[in-house]
Amino acid sequence: MSMTDGRNRVVIDGVTPRVDSGEFPIKRVVGDTVDVEAVAYGDGHDVVACALLYRREADAEWAEVRMEPLVNDGWKAAFVVEEIGRYRYTVAGSVDRFATWAHDLAKRVGAELDLSVDLLIGAELVEAAAARASGSDAARLAAVAALLRTGGGEAARAALAPELAGLMARYAERPFVTMAPELSVVVDRERARFGAWYEMFPRSAATEPGRHGTFRDVEDRLADVAAMGFEVLYLPPIHPIGRAFRKGRNNTPAAGPDDPGSPWAIGGAEGGHKAVHPELGTLEDFRHLLARAADYDIEIALDIAFQCSPDHPYVREHPEWFRLRPDGTIQYAENPPKKYQDIYPFDFETGHWRELWDELKSVVDFWIEQGVRIFRMDNPHTKPFAFWEWLIGEVKKDHPEVLFLAEAFTRPNVLYRLAKVGFTQSYNYFPWRNSKEELTEFLTELTRGPVREFFGANLWPNTPDILPEYLQYGGRPAFVTRLVLAATLGPSYGIYGPAYEQCLNVALGPGREEYLDSEKFEIRPWDPDRGSSLAGLVGRLNRIRRENAALRTNQNLRFHSVDNDRLIAYSKSTEDRASQVLVVVNLDPNHGNAGFVELPLDELRIDPRQPYQVHDLLADRRYLWYGPRNYVELRPEVGQAHVFAIRRRVRTEADFDYYL
Amino acid sequence: MSMTDGRNRVVIDGVTPRVDSGEFPIKRVVGDTVDVEAVAYGDGHDVVACALLYRREADAEWAEVRMEPLVNDGWKAAFVVEEIGRYRYTVAGSVDRFATWAHDLAKRVGAELDLSVDLLIGAELVEAAAARASGSDAARLAAVAALLRTGGGEAARAALAPELAGLMARYAERPFVTMAPELSVVVDRERARFGAWYEMFPRSAATEPGRHGTFRDVEDRLADVAAMGFEVLYLPPIHPIGRAFRKGRNNTPAAGPDDPGSPWAIGGAEGGHKAVHPELGTLEDFRHLLARAADYDIEIALDIAFQCSPDHPYVREHPEWFRLRPDGTIQYAENPPKKYQDIYPFDFETGHWRELWDELKSVVDFWIEQGVRIFRMDNPHTKPFAFWEWLIGEVKKDHPEVLFLAEAFTRPNVLYRLAKVGFTQSYNYFPWRNSKEELTEFLTELTRGPVREFFGANLWPNTPDILPEYLQYGGRPAFVTRLVLAATLGPSYGIYGPAYEQCLNVALGPGREEYLDSEKFEIRPWDPDRGSSLAGLVGRLNRIRRENAALRTNQNLRFHSVDNDRLIAYSKSTEDRASQVLVVVNLDPNHGNAGFVELPLDELRIDPRQPYQVHDLLADRRYLWYGPRNYVELRPEVGQAHVFAIRRRVRTEADFDYYL
Questions:
Q1: pLDDT digits (tens, 9 = 90+) for A291-321
Q2: Catalytic annotation on B514?
Q3: Do A326 and B384 make contact, defined as CB atoms within 8 angstroms?
Q4: What is the ipTM metric for this complex?
Q5: What is the distance in angstroms between the Cα of A390 and the nearest Cα belonging to chain B?
Q6: Is A378 an annotated catalytic residue?
Q7: Which residues, in sequence order, are bridge partners of residue B494?
Q8: CATH assignment of A97-171, among 1.20.58.80, 3.40.50.2300, 3.40.980.10, 3.30.310.50
Q9: Per-residue pLDDT tens for B154-207?
Q10: What CA–CA distance (Å, rounded) separates B261 from B341?
Q11: Cβ distance B224 to B538 under 8 Å?
Q12: How far apart are CA B172 and CA B176, in angstroms?
């Protein structure tokens, strides 16, 4: 404690929201309100005044909002983040001499004590404020001060008038202000929170079997992707693929001459992370694809995997970025007994780590220059956290609109740390959360616990690496169930297609989650006959997501009781309750299930004495419900889910009106 | 984040115990174990090693304890604080290259892979360790390294042998170590936690009515105080008392010529905070009292009230330390409409605050020089927190054995802040926590919540300022009940006597908690006829407290269910369960109550298949109890409480033995 703080009588602890001790920023999207609370108090009985201060990080000046007192020394205020980038906020507190004086004066008036000296004290405070004010305020304050100096009943009335309190709040001296440590909020565009993602392999974009797909073929698929209503089209790495130790079909060690290899074995004679795989087209073709996608309001997300094939130019030009083994070879990736000889990890413990970091940032910068604004970072949990904190921080300084998705399926602390150091979104355990209990616990942690301040979950029922057992054995109804859950539980969700909409469910073997004949190692042409697929359902769901604001956020996600463990029910609402969605899903892919859903009518602001309408947006059917308990029945052969818009009854036709 | 951290791959978050973000020290007493836990993890799959580091603040070198892994990236270790003063502790984490290598090698051995290159990598690690070791360890490591270089089965066995793991843990390179922010622990002597306090006014120490008591009279009372078993004798201020605006009996505005005034109106012609009230004796007399008390193993605690009577020398010598009013008078203490014209508060916002702080510290130093080691600071919540943090910190630098009790009855945040900034102990809401629910909630917060790390509660059923309603209307049984609760719920507790043992219960008026004819304003001679008082019970309780280690701490305080809300039951145990005490108290001063007490036998380590003995240490009666539910009946006319030692059955006479 510095000796210069000796007269600061107010202490502030516990400003929220914050992440941990405030060492990491909270996250919001543009237009969000940041509700700030603090605990602040002084010694003695003096009245304390607190202000919320906030500013864009680039600005020098704080904006100030007077905080309202809560119980138990609590204070609250709010500010709206109107631009992307970083904001800072903090709380300032001090003793309010005038309010203390006025508070005591009121008690003295009540006790009919002599006020003469007290009014003189007040006059001095008001005169000091008058000296800081100007114009009519200064004149008004000077007039009141003069009145106070006269003493007597009129002076006391003027002293306690709300008008004077307002003027003094504006101009009063605030000596010895205590400032809480500054906190940060990263403000992103809405896509950071809300978006439906579609993953596809561009080399599989051709419709004719046997032909390597190109960026042009991807352009031809954009209409399908747009018809399904996706906002983000995510492409695995598009760089040259190495030949050394290239993997064959189904991850076999020896590739045949026509095997295309894994797109994650990055780099060859044609170039590395800043080059395009020649069979996909040119960099110009890629930029053309970006532009065409934009016409469909689709944004391209690029996969960046910071690792090299043995043929990558870096291996030759910068052997110091890799770990050398005693036999002179470079250490390949392995997780014994599994070996990935086609992939060299970078050695982040190299003495040349600064140059390595700079080069890796230049890769991201390169693709930003081409127009990419969303990056899906491969396996970030195998690179140092400090690297990501630096990389994402530096990139967002110049490009706060850039978003990063962490492809990390790992332990909770690691997942959360990656989010804290800067990742906008993250993969997570959703693929393995299937029961009502699992889903409830998992989503409650994400949306109600402290992680909600920094962790953006992107829910994927499948990925090229993960075909969960639930999908393997549940048939089409399982795909419907998981799709509805992902699309309605996650403001951000994604599917790896066309495997998903075509309900591909054959794994590499028993107990495996790898797809048989995975696209990671071979080309699987786009199926032109998509009539029997889930594409129609996907499109409906994504349209419902866009049209119902409640599904764009996870604020106010609440799970509701159903007297059947195979049925899950939950609702979401916007803060103003203008949009309220209730979802009921059958978690059992094999059997129909029925039960009574129990709703907290007061929380949903439904009049318990009136019927209300639930409108199933999937089937476009409307039901009249009565009271908190209502019957629901879902059968795989008809539909696995209701996605209801709740329409509170406002008036009936009997009183000449409708549902709102 | 500094760029030099770039290769630190381990991150540490959440080291506990700590207060808030670690800005305040935790508190312990000598001999305590500090159980440290941390969450630490690295990127990737490498094995992490964590160490707990600790040192006395004065030492330069850390002692190091290897931490054991827990689930979910948790780690734990412990250290013992053996001396009073401050210790520092932190956690260091790094990637353990050798353990990572050995872990992978074991998997390779299991998969029968070729090990030749891996054994060479291991040989390099072991050779590097050998270079850091010396003597036989160095030789042994060199021998193993040579063996590893030979390759083959024997080399793999040696590589995975526990002996090598132990040597490598000692000598392996630990590059890129991450250190968590350092934390502090203040270590006090046991009196910081455990002690029975007795408050008395020295001027009332004479046994003849009408005579002003002296320090010599207090010496004559020491035998009584010792017989009651108190460890601390606390005296209200002993300084000269001002004459200006002196208060009369029952706080009346005008004192008569013989009224002694309030001891808290400090300072007169005879001196201020470093002087002794002449009628009590001399400074030498006071030192003599300290020595005599020490003979009885009684420590004197002194009241320090940082405020002045208008006659205090400071008022004349340092008017700049007080607030001047526009009429030229000095601002007296007031809480409108109440006025305390006999007391001037210091103005801590004075420009001369540094000189003021120094002078106030010199007061504490003065009394330390006389031999005082416990201070009860009056109304600390009306002085700046920063002042206390500085004062207590500075005093304890030279005198870590000094303890400070905060006389603060105020809002929880303020109470807790005073403890955080350094107060050893604090008054609290105990006087107003009377029902089972109130007591359970209050003590659970103090002993199980985060405040346990820094807040030392001292439980007082009464003080010269507080005669609670429960005591006013409950008669002698109420005094028994509250005494037993304070003495057994609080390792530290105190009573203001002789008002307490004599069950004085007459308040100044209805709805008031002030004593009628309070000793604050008049002399009440010591009652020589103490036969009918609670002194005997107090003595028994304090002996039980000393003899049963469970009552010296609040670790393992647990409340137990009783099917009658007028009965409260709780137990305390030492960590090793050698001492276990069960207390059952009748909270109803008017009626007998009975009920079944339900005990968690496994937690108390009682064999549910065997009877066990509960030995009432107050009545010296033994009961055999069976199973978890046992009947208890308490009646005001017999006794309001059981204080049971739980004696677990070890053997019976049938097998020729006894209870332990």
A1: 999 999 999 999 999 999 999 999 999 999 9
A2: no
A3: no
A4: 0.92
A5: 8
A6: yes
A7: B197
A8: 1.20.58.80
A9: 999 999 999 999 999 999 888 899 999 999 999 999 999 999 999 999 999 999
A10: 13
A11: no
A12: 13
